[in-house]
């Protein structure tokens, strides 16, 4: 690592995996200071900084500017590279670093327990014991986590790749553009006729049947190049146009039988992308969005209406194009009315809830986030906008609620505060504050509800999905305690108590 790699805006700025760990840097700094027999005050005086500032750096809570780091290295008489080395300066310091990392995990923060300082006053056996307990807790939680290991890793890997590409897949855009060109599609949305043309061009015929296996969206006869599709009425369920295009996508993108779950997942993401890229061709979609942005009236509803697709397809397609073409970082989430995340994507640093393994699926979203407050809105089906202050900054979100056979889902598209001005609803006055994973934010029912209803409630869970996450202790399995208490509270207020007095 060279000094030039470190500077951007005078701050440490290196890319993972050689990212500087601030806790380790602080420990190395403190170690060198003690070796040189300097107090915090003495070193502060030598580099012309407040002792409180150096203390924050030594505790790994502040990223030092390069100039400050250079001054410290100079005052200690060590090369700056030495301070930046990734190993702990001693075994004891290594344990303290490990403790600090464990305590920064959302899973620990959600417990609401005090942060223990690993300083000299903490006895060595207490430190070893704490680390042992943390390690065991992590192991147990990992074992219990809702998503199987294989699926989790595949999901995470894919999410990282999507994030790195800003969810824009150039090779699929190209493949889709070629297909459109081959059927001479030159304007706007793709019609049903266009889809038949594409299928014919690729050598396939479509057959709508009533006896398709219930678990299949489509079945393709590879020998005779026939695609069998269900005779679905309009309404709920998958857009039949998308199902055809997804099936054709497998052939256009040259997919073979998936080798493993990761492969399967990637193919599914690719064909979904391909179908959306045909239904909402890049050129026309970006023209449309450019005009809307110029009017400061970007709106997922309009985007949906202009191309005749589902809201979710429009929201997804927006995340493909927003960052690549317009420099707008975004997040997307599909959240069940129970508060559970089903799908999520972000490249705007919003912090989705994760379990101890880093998985997002099946995790409960903060009650203050737009994905959940929308369900309590007067009219959840009309346009809903909200600013949310979080530990990672303020985000603006637009949310749409849709009703499905498995309940209501909110579909959210969000962006950091400064980009809200390009959107319709960017001037909303609705605003909430979220401090999750701090348990006082929304993870614990309010004390007065617990006082009144604790021990007096007996809900029966409606287990609705394999995504059901391992719930924290002290709640009812499968049911959120706060929801239960609030429900009982509402009922109690609805009518006067009928209990005999
Ligand atoms: Zn919260």
Into which percentage range does the β-strand content fall?
A: 5-15%
Q: Major sheet, described briefly?
A: 6 strands, mixed
Distance between the termini: 77 Å
Radius of gyration: 27 Å
Mean pLDDT: 84
- Overall, the morphology is globular
Count, helices: 21
Question: Helical percent range?
Answer: 40-55%
* Low-pLDDT windows of residues: 1-18, 464-474
Task: Give a list of the ligands.
Answer: zinc ion
Strand segment count: 11
Order of strands in the sheet with most strands: 7-6-10-9-8-11
Structural class: alpha+beta
Please explain how this structure is put together.
This protein has a 6-stranded mixed sheet with strand order 7-6-10-9-8-11. A 3-stranded mixed sheet has the order 3-5-4, covered by helices on one side. The model is unreliable at 1-18 and 464-474 (pLDDT under 50). Helices cover 45% and strands 12% of the residues. It is globular. It has 501 residues and is α+β, with helices and mostly antiparallel strands. It is built from 21 helices and 11 strands. The site of zinc ion has 7 residues, from α19.
List the helices and strands and how they pair.
Elements: H1 3-6, E1 7-8, E2 11-12, H2 22-35, H3 40-47, H4 51-58, H5 66-76, H6 80-83, H7 91-104, H8 106-109, H9 124-144, H10 149-164, H11 170-182, H12 192-201, E3 205-209, E4 219-221, E5 226-230, H13 240-252, H14 261-279, H15 282-294, H16 300-307, H17 311-326, E6 331-336, E7 341-346, H18 370-373, E8 384-390, E9 393-404, E10 407-416, E11 431-433, H19 439-442, H20 447-453, H21 481-494
Parallel strand pairs: 3-5, 8-11
Antiparallel strand pairs: 1-2, 4-5, 6-7, 6-10, 8-9, 9-10
This protein binds zinc ion.
């Amino acid at each position: 690592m060279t000094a030039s790699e470190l500077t951007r805006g005078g701050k440490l700025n290196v890319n993972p995996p050689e990212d500087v760990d601030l806790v380790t840097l602080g420990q190395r700094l403190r170690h060198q200071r003690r070796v040189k027999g300097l107090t915090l005050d003495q070193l502060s005086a030598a580099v012309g900084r407040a002792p409180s500032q150096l203390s924050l750096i030594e505790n790994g809570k502040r990223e030092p500017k390069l100039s400050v780091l250079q001054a410290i290295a100079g005052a200690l008489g060590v090369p700056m590279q030495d301070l930046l080395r990734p190993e702990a300066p001693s075994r004891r310091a290594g344990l303290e670093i490990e403790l600090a990392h464990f305590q920064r995990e959302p899973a620990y923060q959600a417990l609401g327990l005090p942060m223990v300082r690993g300083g000299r006053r903490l006895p060595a056996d207490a430190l070893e014991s704490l680390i042992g307990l943390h390690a065991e807790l992590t192991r147990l939680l990992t074992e219990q986590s809702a998503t199987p290991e294989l699926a989790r890793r595949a999901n995470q890997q894919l999410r990282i790749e999507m994030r790195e590409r800003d969810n824009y897949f150039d090779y699929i855009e190209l493949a889709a553009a070629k297909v459109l060109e081959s059927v001479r599609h030159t304007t706007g949305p793709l019609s049903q006729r266009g889809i038949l043309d594409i299928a014919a061009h690729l050598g396939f015929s479509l057959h709508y049947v009533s006896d398709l296996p219930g678990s299949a969206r489509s079945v393709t006869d590879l020998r005779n190049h026939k695609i069998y599709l269900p005779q679905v009425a309009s309404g709920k369920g998958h857009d039949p146009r998308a199902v055809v295009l997804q099936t054709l996508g497998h052939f256009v993108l040259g997919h073979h039988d998936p080798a493993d779950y990761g492969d399967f997942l990637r193919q599914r993401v690719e064909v979904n992308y391909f179908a959306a890229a045909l239904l909402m061709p890049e050129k026309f979609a970006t023209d449309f969005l450019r005009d809307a942005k110029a009017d400061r009236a970007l709106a997922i509803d309009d985007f949906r209406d202009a191309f005749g697709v589902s809201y979710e397809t429009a929201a997804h397609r927006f995340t493909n194009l927003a960052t690549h073409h317009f420099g707008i970082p975004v997040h997307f989430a599909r959240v069940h009315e129970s508060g559970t995340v089903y799908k999520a994507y972000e490249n705007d640093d919003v912090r989705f809830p994760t379990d101890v393994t880093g998985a997002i699926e099946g995790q409960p979203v903060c009650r203050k986030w737009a994905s959940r407050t929308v369900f309590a809105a007067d009219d959840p089906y009309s346009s809903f906008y909200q600013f949310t202050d979080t530990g990672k900054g303020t985000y603006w979100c637009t949310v749409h609620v849709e009703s499905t056979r498995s309940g209501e889902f909110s579909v959210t598209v969000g962006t950091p505060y400064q980009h809200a001005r390009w959107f319709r609803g960017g001037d909303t006055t609705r605003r909430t504050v979220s401090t999750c994973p701090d348990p006082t934010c929304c993870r614990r029912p309010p004390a007065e509800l617990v006082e009144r209803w604790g021990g007096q409630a007996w809900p029966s869970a409606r287990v609705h999905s394999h995504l059901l996450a391992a719930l924290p202790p002290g709640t009812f399995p499968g049911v959120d305690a706060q929801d239960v208490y609030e429900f009982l509270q509402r009922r109690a207020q609805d009518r006067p108590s009928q209990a005999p007095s």
